[in-house]
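Translate structure to sequence.
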């Protein structure tokens, strides 16, 4: 799988679609074009980095319907709408559903390029956040049950002796397990363990699919 971002362009206007592809390609971007939302959905959902440049009104499913379908499928590809036909209700729905931008045709080339780059940057940040979450979960998965118990008590502010008394183990055992869990988590202090605990609490319940 290529690591280069791929811009997906969905528009039923052949001449406009060709012009947009040329513009993006000239800007050094990789592009894949589709004549309809249905055509886009016939292909496997994008797994690599990128964004979606999407017309609003097309034969078959509309741009908004494609946006909803992608959301239902768990895809996180950032969407940029560009259309010649829109109203306030459509633009509000698109933005509430997470669209990066909502552009009216005709659009200045630089405005379009800027919107695409914002979409690619959002995708990069989303992927970085997912990778960070997966790394954090993987590190916590290395802890034994006892190490997790010690971890919880350390971040609760308990001293080694208090932890030993609460768990019914020797203080030297607490020290050893504390050292082991800090090594596994890549932490150097109790304060850093506390920050890791806060980050873990903010994570979604399960790993996100990195589409």
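Result:
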């Amino acid at each position: 799988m290529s690591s280069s971002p791929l811009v997906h362009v969905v528009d039923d206007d052949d001449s406009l679609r060709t012009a947009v592809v040329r513009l993006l390609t000239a800007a050094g971007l990789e592009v894949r074009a589709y004549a309809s939302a249905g055509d886009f959905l016939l292909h496997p959902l994008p797994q690599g980095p990128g964004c979606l440049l999407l017309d609003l009104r097309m034969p078959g499913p509309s741009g908004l319907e494609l946006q909803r379908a992608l959301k239902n499928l768990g895809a996180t590809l950032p969407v940029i709408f560009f259309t010649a036909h829109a109203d306030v209700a459509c633009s509000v729905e698109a933005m509430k559903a997470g669209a990066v931008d909502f552009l009216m045709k005709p659009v200045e080339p630089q405005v379009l390029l800027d919107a695409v780059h914002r979409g690619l940057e959002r995708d990069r940040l989303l992927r970085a956040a997912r990778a960070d979450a997966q790394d954090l979960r993987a590190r916590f998965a290395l802890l034994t049950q006892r190490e997790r118990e010690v971890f919880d008590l350390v971040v609760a502010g308990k001293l080694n002796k208090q932890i030993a008394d609460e768990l019914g183990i020797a203080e030297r055992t607490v020290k050893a397990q504390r050292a082991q869990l800090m090594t596994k988590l890549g932490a150097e202090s109790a304060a850093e363990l506390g920050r890791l605990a806060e980050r873990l609490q903010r994570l979604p319940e399960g790993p996100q699919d990195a589409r």
